[in-house]
Every structure is written in C-alpha cells, then in structure tokens.
Design goal:
Number of strands: 27
Helix content: 25-40%
Distance between the termini: 69 Å
Radius of gyration: 32 Å
Number of helices: 11
Strand content: 25-35%
CATH topology of the largest domain: Rossmann fold
Structural class: alpha+beta
C-alpha cells in the first residue's frame, strides 16, 4: 500500500509541476521580463526606446536578412539583434513585428534583399582547415506605411539600439527637423562625416548668414570665426535667436599655426556678440596636464626621428556636469586649443558642461617666436604653442606650469535674450524686428574647429558630444540617453611621481619579500617537525 501511495503522490507532483509550467508560460507571453546586471543595463532596451516604440500609430515590420552560417566573431550579433527586436515587439502594443529570413541558397530571398538595398558581405571563415572568403547577409529593412529605411550591414552591437530607435523615430515622424550648417565666409569646413551621422535623424542644409536664416532651421551649427563679422550677418543671426533658434558654436580666441609654433590672437566682434547673450570666452589659451600627444621631429647627431610627446594645449576632458543630460554619461572629449568659458550676465542661465583637470595653466598672448620654412625665427604677436624652446630640446615652460584649478571650456546659456540690435536705429526699425526672444539657447565650446572632420569632429568621443548636443537643442532628448549608454573610453587615473615610484619599488621588492617570508615559515615548520620527531623517537 505504501508503494502505491508513493506512486500516486509522485504522479500528483508531476501533474502539478506540469500545470505550473503551462500556466507560467501562458502568463509569460503577456509579461515581458529580462534581468540585465550590466552597467547602465546596456543589453536591455532603454526607457527612451520604449517611449519611441510605444508612440507608433500603425504597424511596423522589420525584415531581417541574416545568414545562418556566419563566422564566430559575428555570431553574437544575431543573438543581440534578436533580443532587441523581441523587446521592441513586447513594448510596441502589438504594432511592431519582425521576421528573420535566411537568404543562403534562396534565390527569391536574395533578390528581395537586393531590392531593399541589402547586399551580401564578404567575411573570412575557416572551413576544412582553410581560410576562405564567404558571402553572408547581415542587414535589415524597416517598413512603415509606404516608407522604408534600410540598415544594410549589422557588424557590431555597439550603437545598434541607437541606430534602430533613431530609424524607427525617423520613419514614424510626420516631419523631420532640420539642422543648418553655416557656410558663410571662413565657415567652409569639412563636415561630411558629421552630416552622414545627422542625416540618420535630421534633414541637413547649408545656411548662409548673408540672408535671413529660414524659419524651419531648428538648430544651427557655427564653427569659429577668425575675423570680424558684418553687421548684416550678425543681424540675421540675432533675429534667428530672437525667433527661438538654437545655436551650437565652436569658437576660440586664437587660430593655431602649428607648423610655425605659434597661434595668432583672433580679434573679432563675434566675442562681443556672444558676451551680450551671457557667454564670455576668455583670452588666455589653456594648458592641461591631462592631454593628448603630438608627433614631433627630433635630431640626434646626424639622425632625425619622430617622437610622440605630451601636448598640453590638446586637453583630454574627463570632468563633466553629472546633472546635465548632454554630458552626464560621457567619459572623454578631446579638445584642441581652448579657452575658458564663463557667464557674462547674471540674467541668463549659464550651465557649465565640461571642465579641464585640476592641473590647468594658461598662456597669455604676447611677442612669441614664429618658425619660418627655412628654420629661422621671427617675433610675432600671439601665443607660444611650441612644445620646446626654439633651438633647444628643453620643454616650453608655459606648457609645464599648472597653477590654476579646473576651468570650464563648454557651456550652455538659455534665455530670455534681448536683441543685440535693440538699441541700434539702423536695424530696430526693420519690418518684423524682434527685440526679445524667450526660448533661444546657445551652446558654446571654446574650440575653433570642433565640427571639422579633420580635427576634433572626426574623433568618435567628440561625435557623441556633438550629436547629444544637437539632439538636446532640437528637442530630441530621447536619443541622448541611448547614445550615451555605450562605454567609449576608460582612461586610467593619473598618478603623481611619488605614487609611481612607490608602486615601482613595491613591485620590485614585494615578490622577493614574500618568497623570503615563505621560506622562513617553511624552515620554521621543518625545525618544529624535526624536534617533534626527536622527542618521540629519541
């Protein structure tokens, strides 16, 4: 009887367990839960992406063309992509759907992929102990109403959520916001890479300050002027701000002449213009102990060689405003030839965004040596930016002195603003003249070529800051959070000379000391054991 009772009890437990599993699976289809223990929940959908996908008004379909047999180094991409798409589907209230299609050996699927602009990629695979080139598919297309957007190649997990969410947002938007890039005068800069990034979510147009700035320009990018600006150009810029325009500026007080070893001071009315709106750009060139490097030619006897040296006018910025959405998740920005930025007017709201390190110095303008193409020197007015003293291998003392504390190099000012031309009868009588602006914003970083692809703008960490700033100014703050989740750089802490010496000698002597201690303990143990044996056996 006991055996029969145990069998019935066992059967009951099995049936109950099966029922619990069935009920759990049924409930889990309606509830989506995922546990992500990584920093910033990098492998889970962000709140911003959830908000975007929840706002879909109609059905959106993602067709994913993904080969089944892909190299090991790319295999994780499919799993991560599928996880993301499952989360989009779970939070879309039934409006987002996806399907995976394997084009390998399927002529119809390959034709469909090509029609969407998804070509095969070449990848290296090892088969039969040989390295071979194989064609694989790793792309997707998003379809929404009569519109579509293609992501032809998915090769890395980094930034994939941002790309997907930005594309979904772009498809679902009834109208795209416009970013203008100023092209007047000396503003013609290389921004091809930046424009490619911006076109994922914005319409991009070049804008001239010689005419009225169009009303549909939400955010305007303005690289540094190196000369004075005409009154008409300033007026057009002023009235753009009065209409609630958003201005993102890279403007410093000096123009570098790196090959000649000096920087010339910029004297322009643009500084008075920005100061009127509450943002002041200092005159001194900042140097920072935490800095990038530059390659210089050095000579030893008959030999000349290239050597990388610290260049203190290329500060590496790690101090960010932890309460500001634009920069709070950034880890590093690389700047070139910067000045201090500060509040010039207590009426406006000034927000410091990033600062130099606690080891900061400054170079004031004066008479400095200018190296000619023939290796000779002329004295000119400007800033000495040469790493070394002319005709010497000694360091430039201005580059190695850091008596100042941290300085702000980028800031944001918010209105209300009063027109720069409010008291000017030549302009304040114009039709449609606005003397006050309520919702304007100016974000300024004291770097003359921060948007230049060939300078600061071509550095990935800087691109994150630029795109975050444009999204923030344009009101697309949902995208800022997603972009900032990915770790880009984890710089090591700078140690003092004393700390470096301490750890150096500790690494040399500690292993030897531990070996000696271990040997002494072993010797003591052997002596005790020998004495014990002698006591037992005489």
């Amino acid at each position: 009887m006991t055996i029969i009772a145990n069998k019935k009890q066992f059967t009951f437990y099995i049936v109950m367990l099966a029922a619990i599993i069935v009920i759990f699976n049924f409930v889990s289809r309606a509830l989506f839960v995922r546990f992500d223990l990584t920093e910033n929940n990098m492998y889970s959908l962000s709140n911003s992406s959830k908000k975007v996908i929840e706002k879909l008004d109609d059905r959106m379909v993602a067709k994913v063309f993904f080969s089944k047999d892909i190299p090991g180094q790319l295999a994780n991409s499919r799993r991560y992509l599928q996880d993301l798409l499952e989360e989009y589907e779970a939070y879309s209230k039934g409006r987002f759907h996806f399907e995976f299609i394997a084009p390998d050996g399927n002529e119809d699927a390959q034709t469909e992929a090509r029609s969407y602009g998804i070509p095969p990629m070449q990848a290296q695979v090892i088969e039969n102990d040989k390295l071979e080139i194989k064609n694989i598919y790793m792309g997707l297309v998003l379809l929404y109403n009569d519109k579509r957007e293609t992501i032809p190649a998915i090769q890395a997990n980094e930034g994939l959520e941002y790309t997907l969410t930005a594309t979904i947002k772009k498809l679902a938007a009834t109208d795209m916001k416009t970013v203008g890039i100023v092209s007047s005068g000396n503003q013609n800069i290389a921004t091809t890479k930046l424009q490619e990034q911006l076109r994922q979510t914005y319409t991009v147009r070049t804008v001239s300050l010689d005419t009225e700035i169009p009303l549909d320009i939400h955010t305007l990018l303005l690289n540094g002027f190196q000369d004075s600006v005409s009154a008409d150009q300033l007026y057009n810029l002023d009235q753009y701000l009065m209409r609630g325009g958003k201005l993102f500026v890279g403007q410093a007080h000096q123009a570098d002449h790196l090959q000649e070893g000096y920087a010339s001071e910029i004297k322009s009315n643009i500084f008075d213009f920005y100061e009127h709106y509450g943002i002041k750009i200092g005159n001194d060139l900042l140097v920072d102990q935490k800095c990038g490097q530059i390659s210089i030619q050095q000579r030893r006897g008959f030999f000349s060689f290239s050597n990388a040296v610290n260049y203190q006018v290329f500060p590496l910025i790690h101090n960010f405003n932890s309460e500001n959405l634009i920069v709070k998740n950034l880890e590093q920005v690389r700047a070139f030839f910067v000045n201090e930025v500060s509040a010039a007017d207590s009426v406006v709201r000034f927000i410091s965004l990033m600062r130099t390190s606690e080891k900061t110095g400054a170079i004031s303008p004066g008479m400095v040596p200018q190296m000619t193409p023939y290796g000779q020197y002329n004295m000119v007015e400007g800033y000495n930016i040469s790493p070394h003293i002319p005709s010497s291998q000694m360091n430039n003392p201005a580059m190695t002195s850091f008596p100042l504390k941290s300085k702000t190099i980028a800031g944001l000012v918010e209105g209300p603003f009063r027109s720069y031309f409010a008291g000017n009868p030549d302009y304040n009588q114009e039709d449609n003249f606005l003397s006050m602006g309520e919702n304007a914003q100016i974000l300024l970083i004291a770097d003359n070529e921060f948007f230049n692809d060939n300078r600061a703008g071509g550095i990935p960490e800087n691109t994150d800051f630029i795109l975050n700033s444009i999204d923030y100014l344009s009101g697309d703050q949902e995208l800022v959070e997603i972009r900032s989740r990915t770790v880009t750089a984890r710089p090591l802490d700078q140690l003092s000379d004393g700390a470096r010496r301490f750890w150096k000698w500790l690494n040399i002597f500690l292993p030897a000391f531990l070996v000696i201690v271990f040997g002494l303990l072993r010797w003591r143990k052997n002596v005790s054991k020998r004495k014990l044996l002698e006591g037992l056996y005489g």
